[in-house]
Design a protein that fits this description.
The chain is of the alpha+beta class and 165 residues long. It is 21% helix and 48% strand.
Amino acid sequence: MKLSRQTALAVAIACGAIAMVSAPLDAAEEPSMMQPGKWQSTTTFSKIDMPGMPPQVAGMMKKMMGRQQSVSYCVKPEDIGRPGPDAMGGKNAKDCKYEDWSYNGGRMRATIVCKVKGQGTMRMKMAGSGSPTAYNADVDTTITGSKMGPMHMVGKVSAKRIGSC
């Protein structure tokens, strides 16, 4: 269960961070993707695959599907477009890098890769739509290099600004 919770939290935090860096290249043409303030991000997984997992772990994973994993975080004005590794992948992540990202006309797309302590490498793709105060996206995450073997998760994330920090 520890692996599942840490992984879910890392994915939820990474989803919020991807939206932070999805600000347009020319802020004069379009408002930034996220307004500074307190945000809440909720991720729900619809598919979790882990080939070769023990039956008891498979049962726990199936119970996780459909459950919402929420995380709140503060987006400071200086964070827009420049979140650090902790924001990208959670407290156990390091060496986070964006393979690609874009935000045009309210549509966002991103791929982030992080090394997650004790869990291998997380590669997450996200595509969706958003405004300065909310976003919704589909998430496809693969984790490799874990002691328990590879993991693949598919889900949705939604987030909204809920106030000031």
